[in-house]
Amino acid sequence: MEHAQEEEACLEQTQRYCVQRPIYNQELLQGQLHRRQRTPQTLGQKIAHSCRCSSKKAKSSLYSFMPILKWLPRYPVKEYLLGDIISGVSTGIMQLPQGLAYSLLAAVPPVFGLYSSFYPVFLYTFFGTSRHISIGTFAVISMMVGGVAVREVPDEIISLDSNSTNITDVLEYYSARDAKRVQVAVTLAFLAGLIQLSLGFLRFGFVAIYLTEPLVRGFTTAAAVHVFISQLKYLLGIQTSRFSGPLSVVYVSTAVLSKITTTNIATMIVGLTCIILLLTGKKINRRFKKKLPVPVPMEIIVVIIGTGVSAGMNLNESYKVKVVGSIPQGLRAPAVPQIQLNPAMLGDAVAIAIVGFSMAVSMAKIFALKHGYTIDGNQELIALGICNSVGSFFQTFPITCSMSRSLVQEGTGGKTQIAGALSAVIVLLVIVAIGYLFEPLPQTVLAGIVMVNLKGMLKQFRDIRHFWRTSKIELAIWMVAFVASLFLGLEYGLLTAVTFAIITVIYRTQRPKYRILGQIPNTDIYCDVEEYEEVGTCSSALCSLIQWNKDSCGSLLLCPTTLHACAMLAAEHSPVLKERKKFGLVVKLKNDVEATAKHEIASDDLPVNGKFAESSVQDMPLDEHEHFVLPKANIHSLILDFTPVNFVDSVGAKTLKSVSRGVCTDAVFGFCFVDPVTNELTRLNFFDKSITRELLFHSIHDAVLACQMKHGSAAQADSNL
Q1: Three-state secondary-structure class, residue 696
Q2: Which of the residues 172, 264, 283, 392 could staple to 189 if both were Cys, CB 3.0 to 4.6 A apart?
């Protein structure tokens, strides 16, 4: 009793509306509305308008191309400057060791990681639209670059157990090999930049939507596994060849395991110590995040400690611990990249360009949503393209947004890309002044930094449980992206994952569903009759189509059995027949009359409310079954809700016309369309004397009331059942 009173009180508090208006069909409504007059433009007029230049248009284009011109004059110094300085210094300190470490992944000398941490970061300040992301080296992109560099310039193991002359030859060989790999990396940066620039100017920023979250997360998880395994040889001090292409992860694992007995104990101890220190530092930063003004820069601390210990104990000479080696002081003069028109490299550049853009724009959208501003996907493509293409003239390899550094830049109070410019200045000081101090830094320290930074991406294995609960199709996309990228390589894996994701979209769109709708009592709202007990039905069959497909929906509606099944389902939920069920007024058919009643029973392969039901009737004796069916319902109208349909082509229009003419002569059709679909039907000559705009309605309720007025009230129709 109390519960009923609470429901009544809740209903009284619910806001209500009452509207009295005529029953509108398309023709009546269009007669009362006045369309806006639009003068159509010819192609020449459109081109002339786009080429027309004015001071206002030129200023808008310049601001769009260089966003810094818009926000820098309005920069609030007192509110933003201190936070940007702290953020820039913190990010720059983090940028330095990561630039050195990720150069190992890219298979180039460490100094080129510093170059890639300076030029692109500085350029993005002028052309980027995100205020918080940190541009520079990133593990996944560096791994992709390293795979191409190793494939184009294969690694060879040369024995060093000979005289000094041979050692000199070996050093010259390695120097020449590294120079060739640098050229490959620089060429990739140039090609990837050109591709991103082209896509940006062509307004192709929407391509990121095809890289869905499950696909990107599965891909980056596989890339993290690739990176982790590739760093094992540096962590353990093992000398092995680098592999790329399909099954490279298997070859690398096999090579490391086959030479596990040659592990350099000193190298392993230094590397594991650094990993422990880094993990401890991250835990401290996470636990005391609210109390610390800035995160403890554990990476640069580990680099300084590792460099000091290596130089003091002479680890390279005494314990054969490999170190970074020569870091040239100063900046290199710009040089034109040596464009190698290798079709395979072009495909790699496309993959790097798209993955790099996807990483950057996804991170930028997160921060933009959090801080209440917008980003321009097309301008982000242009900005990344400039960073990569212009940076390639200064010997940089491809870059993108770094997730870990972006979180630090935003979390330490960064408000604009002034913080990014300051981080670039920090790296510049190291390149110009003190870079040589890091020459004794052990490579195992850099490997430890890379491995610890993979922790966040490796946690994405938890996605399997999440997607298992939420969406099996998204789980399939994640698994295909992960497995394909892991075993086929990152380039082929990305192509396979995108192809599979597109196939899943096609699969879902080519299996359209329909719903039999019923009316919620005393409202103009219609819902699925199988979902809610309160939903009643009228004597019109209401069918909501998610997508109009000629082969599925067309044949479905042309089939008399389907219409009778709709009638049966509508009758099941009819209030009149619910009362008849209580008194046993349900026809019971034996198997010997099954054939004569077939037109009243849904066939075994008939979709029931959008899904196909399986039946095992044929596998069992006929005399063991009884079919309970309702009397044949009298459906006088069929209303199709096409409002979820976005477009219709000529084949669909012809099929729809055939359906409206061929179902039955005594049934009246009603259609609910959105205006764009109605316009398409007009252009396709869908309307004629038999199919007029009087059959089109803007809402389901208008269509139902119009049909009821034409054939009598709903109560009278129910009494005829």
Answers
A1: strand
A2: 392
d(CA 136, CA 387): 9
Q: What is the pLDDT of residue 13?
A: 59
Phi/psi for 607 (5° steps) reads -70, 130
Contacts of 339 (CB under 8 A, 6+ apart): 187, 190, 191
DSSP-derived 3-state class of residue 588:
strand
Rounded to a whole number of angstroms, the distance between the first and last alpha carbons of the chain is 37
The pLDDT value recorded for residue 644 is 74
SS3 annotation, 463-515: HHHHHHHHCHHHHHHHHHHHHHHHHHCHHHHHHHHHHHHHHHHHHHHCCCCEE
Name, in order, each residue with C-beta under 8 angstroms of 557's C-beta and a sequence gap of 6 or more.
Answer: 543, 563, 638, 640, 659, 663
Burial (Cβ within 10 Å: 0-12, 13-18, ≥19) of residue 349: buried
Per-residue pLDDT, 124: 95
- Dihedral, 197, 200, 204, 206 alpha carbons, nearest 10: 120
- Which has the closest alpha carbon to 645: 610, 680, 620? 680
Whole-Å CA distances, 405 to 291, 304, 591, 714: 20, 19, 73, 66
DSSP bridge pairs for 544: 515, 641
Which strand (E) or helix (H) includes residue 196?
helix 164-201
Q: Cα separations (Å) of 386 from 53, 128, 141, 353, 706?
A: 25, 10, 17, 12, 61
- Give pLDDT, residue 618: 44
CA angle 400, 403, 409 (to 5 degrees): 100
In this prediction, residue 598 carries a pLDDT of 34
Ranges of residues in the chain whose predicted pLDDT is under 70: 1-14, 156-170, 340-342, 511-514, 536-636, 661-674, 711-721
